[in-house]
């Protein structure tokens, strides 16, 4: 494994002091309005104040009430005594040889999550986390070996986007000509955790990120990836309306039960039923089927043919993900010839079948490799020794 080309360690306290202030980041407009009124802002003014504060925080990236110059000085002081504008702290930032950046972020309680920025020629994708760890135990996923520690708050989810924009210097400069090129042009909920097991916070966070007077990412530039939490899929269409990706990974229930054990609760047929409804409910085009290529497990020609039969009638793209290995895992990546042969069958059946280029492998930033160092520290000495020798 290559050494990362740069790694900054910033000094932050191990535990953040608990704050008595209300964090503005992550509140929806309605929640912010209610919080301002509860703190004593006159009802008549509240809507206007929300608009002003919103623009400072999400359009200009301001973190200090003192800079909100269209608010009266005493109102700025009033806000500073009751509210804060707080985002997760960067503990480490690693930059891969291919330009991918991985941030280890510390959140309240001393927990850590990872966020990955992937620059490409015509876009930049930010892969954000929705939970610390995961309750699910997909057998090929590094995050799945880590217990769920807690759901992220909406503020911690929006905060990941804000931290990346800070680090990339992406907030607009007052007076500068409007720059239409966006560094963070797309957001994917494909980091740590199952976003549909933290539905309300993910929804509220995406509402903030999509708001046209702030970060202003269109719902078509946000992709939520789920392992297949069927009851939440229609809600995602109706309440978020973003693009959907599904971690499909197998074409029989027998194999999917092993790879994505939540399949025992909602099997392939039930999942496909919910997916068939998604494009209509969300008024979006197609669903991305993610399919991790595991040598000898799910990668045969017969699998490819079964896959296209199963998804018949669903507008879809099949994203083939070469498996990214991690210490101690029992699976191997399929060979390139196998992946290409599989892609060919899917493609000939009329579906786009891009093979996802692994990014940031040298810094363990690729899909399914995320896992936070502190939580790793909770394992037994024997597990750590086994990982180290693997
Ligand atoms: N929990 C959600 C989102 C996070 S995982 C979900 O499961 O969809 C994002 C994608 O990476 C999923 O498709 C997941 O199955 C895949 N993945 C997990 N571990 C992987 C690995 N080691 N190599 C390649 N892809 C992996
Ligand atoms: Fe959780 Fe997704 Fe990993 Fe499965 S693949 S363990 S749902 S993060």
Automatic annotation (TrEMBL):
UniProt catalytic activity: adenosine(2503) in 23S rRNA + 2 reduced [2Fe-2S]-[ferredoxin] + 2 S-adenosyl-L-methionine = 2-methyladenosine(2503) in 23S rRNA + 5'-deoxyadenosine + L-methionine + 2 oxidized [2Fe-2S]-[ferredoxin] + S-adenosyl-L-homocysteine; adenosine(37) in tRNA + 2 reduced [2Fe-2S]-[ferredoxin] + 2 S-adenosyl-L-methionine = 2-methyladenosine(37) in tRNA + 5'-deoxyadenosine + L-methionine + 2 oxidized [2Fe-2S]-[ferredoxin] + S-adenosyl-L-homocysteine
A GO BP annotation: tRNA methylation
Cofactor remark from the record: Binds 1 [4Fe-4S] cluster. The cluster is coordinated with 3 cysteines and an exchangeable S-adenosyl-L-methionine.
Catalytic residues in the record: 114 (proton acceptor), 367 (s-methylcysteine intermediate)
Binding site for [4Fe-4S] cluster: 134, 138, 141
Keyword Transferase: yes
GO cellular component terms, semicolon-separated: cytoplasm
Annotated localization: Cytoplasm
Pfam families membership: Radical_SAM (PF04055), RlmN_N (PF21016)
Keywords: 4Fe-4S, Cytoplasm, Disulfide bond, Iron, Iron-sulfur, Metal-binding, Methyltransferase, rRNA processing, S-adenosyl-L-methionine, Transferase, tRNA processing
PANTHER family: 23S RRNA METHYLTRANSFERASE, RADICAL SAM CORE DOMAIN-CONTAINING PROTEIN
Protein name (record): Dual-specificity RNA methyltransferase RlmN
Origin species: Paracoccus shanxieyensis
């Amino acid at each position: 494994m290559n050494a990362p080309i740069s790694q900054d360690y910033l000094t932050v306290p191990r535990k953040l002091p608990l704050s008595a202030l209300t964090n503005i980041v992550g509140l929806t407009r309605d929640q912010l309005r209610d919080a301002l009124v509860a703190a004593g802002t006159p009802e008549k003014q509240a809507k206007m104040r929300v608009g002003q504060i919103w623009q400072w925080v999400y359009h200009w990236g301001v973190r200090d009430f003192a800079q909100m110059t269209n608010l009266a000085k005493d109102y700025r002081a009033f806000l500073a005594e009751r509210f804060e504008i707080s985002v997760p702290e960067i503990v480490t930032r690693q930059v891969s040889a291919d330009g991918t950046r991985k941030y280890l972020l510390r959140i309240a309680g001393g927990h850590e999550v990872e966020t990955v920025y992937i620059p490409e020629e015509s876009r930049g994708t930010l892969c954000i986390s929705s939970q610390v760890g995961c309750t699910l135990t997909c057998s090929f996923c590094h995050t799945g070996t880590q217990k769920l520690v807690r759901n992220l708050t909406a503020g911690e989810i929006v905060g990941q986007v804000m931290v990346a924009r800070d680090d990339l210097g992406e907030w607009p400069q007052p007076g500068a000509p409007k720059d239409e090129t966006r560094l963070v042009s797309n957001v994917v909920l494909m980091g740590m955790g199952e976003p549909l097991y933290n539905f309300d916070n993910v929804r509220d966070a995406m509402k903030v990120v999509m708001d046209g007077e702030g970060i202003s990412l269109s719902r078509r530039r946000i992709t939520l990836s789920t392992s297949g939490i069927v009851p939440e899929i229609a809600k995602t269409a109706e309440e978020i309306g973003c693009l959907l990706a599904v971690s499909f990974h197998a074409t029989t229930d027998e194999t999917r039960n092993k790879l994505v054990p939540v399949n025992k609760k909602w099997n392939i047929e039930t999942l496909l039923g919910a997916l068939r409804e998604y494009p209509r409910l969300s008024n979006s085009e197609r669903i991305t089927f993610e399919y991790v290529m595991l040598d000898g497990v799910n990668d045969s020609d017969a699998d490819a043919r079964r896959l296209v039969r199963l998804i018949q009638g669903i507008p879809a793209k099949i994203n083939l993900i070469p498996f990214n290995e991690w210490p101690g895992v029992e699976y191997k990546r399929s060979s390139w010839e196998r992946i290409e042969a599989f892609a060919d069958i899917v493609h000939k059946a009329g579906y786009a079948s891009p093979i996802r280029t692994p990014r940031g492998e040298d810094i363990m930033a690729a899909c399914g490799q995320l896992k936070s160092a502190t939580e790793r520290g909770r394992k037994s000495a024997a597990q750590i020794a086994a990982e180290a020798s693997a």
